[in-house]
């Protein structure tokens, strides 16, 4: 009703709820994703890759359960664009999501910088150039494609009877664990942008502002054409 305009007076309130849900969720996701990389670097790598995968898994899982019913728990501009393609959100809502994700992400990276540390360029994503560029891009597209496919599977099946948060958090954790040593496994343009801006490490940013959108848009188009009624 709020989206269709039957209760138009309540729309600004619901928009504020969406904004703060996406702001808080993105803040937590960025802190977990970049902070775990910084913490592992500060330990000299003794904590291990499992921690860099486990922390985002926990953060995303909790935020999906906390805000999934309010904002669809996107926390990712590439996911937002895909949800627009599948008509889960409207064009007018896109600026709300992007503004919340951007401010939440920058707040999160400032928290990491001044509370956890600034090692490894604030946890910026970095590909492994011992692999060819086409493989790096392909893996990053694949990682994001799998994430978006799982998200839409959960949404399409109405939360998988309460298991949706674990499933979405799980695919992110697995993508990081199995793919980060090749592509960096960002899957999220805003997660890649904020440490790059604050650390000045822009070298590989173009990868994470192309491949994730390719992955989510492809799945969005497939879902719209095959499953959306």
Structure explained in plain terms:
With 229 residues, this protein is mostly helical. The chain is 73% helix and 0% strand. Mean pLDDT is 92; it is low at 1-11.
Secondary structure layout plus pairing:
Layout (H helix, E strand, L loop, with lengths): L10 H32 L6 H23 L5 H9 L8 H23 L2 H5 L9 H24 L7 H20 L5 H11 L5 H4 L2 H16 L3
Helix pairs in contact: 1-2, 1-4, 2-7, 3-4, 3-10, 4-8, 6-7, 6-10
Mean pLDDT: 92
* Residue windows where pLDDT falls under 50 for at least 5 positions: 1-11
Would you count the extended β strands for me? 0
**Gyration radius, in Å:** 17 Å
Q: How many helices?
A: 10
Approximately how much helix is present in the residues? over 70%
Query: What characteristic shape results from the CA principal axes?
Result: globular
- Strand fraction equals under 5%
How far is the N terminus from the C terminus?
19 Å
**In sequence order, what are the helices and strands, one letter per element?**
HHHHHHHHHH
Main β-sheet: number of strands, strand sense, barrel status?
Answer: none
């Amino acid at each position: 009703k709020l989206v269709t305009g039957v209760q138009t007076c309540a729309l600004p309130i619901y928009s504020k709820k969406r904004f703060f849900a996406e702001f808080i969720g993105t803040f937590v996701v960025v802190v977990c994703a970049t902070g775990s990389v910084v913490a592992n670097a500060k330990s000299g790598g003794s904590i291990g890759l499992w921690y860099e995968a486990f922390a985002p898994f926990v953060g995303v899982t909790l935020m999906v359960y906390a805000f999934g019913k309010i904002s669809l728990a996107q926390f990712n501009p590439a996911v937002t664009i895909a949800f627009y393609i599948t008509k889960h959100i409207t064009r007018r809502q896109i600026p709300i999501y992007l503004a919340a994700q951007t401010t939440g992400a920058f707040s999160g990276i400032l928290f990491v910088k001044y509370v956890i540390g600034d090692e490894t360029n604030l946890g910026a994503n970095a590909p492994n150039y011992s692999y060819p560029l086409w493989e790096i891009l392909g893996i990053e597209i694949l990682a994001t494609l799998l994430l978006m496919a799982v998200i839409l599977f959960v949404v399409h099946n109405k939360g998988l009877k309460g298991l949706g948060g674990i499933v979405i958090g799980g695919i992110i954790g697995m993508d990081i664990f199995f793919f980060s040593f090749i592509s960096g496994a960002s899957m999220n343009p805003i997660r890649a942008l904020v440490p790059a801006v604050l650390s000045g490490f822009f070298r590989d940013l173009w990868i994470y502002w192309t491949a994730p959108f390719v992955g989510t848009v492809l799945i969005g188009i497939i879902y719209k054409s095959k499953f959306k009624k």
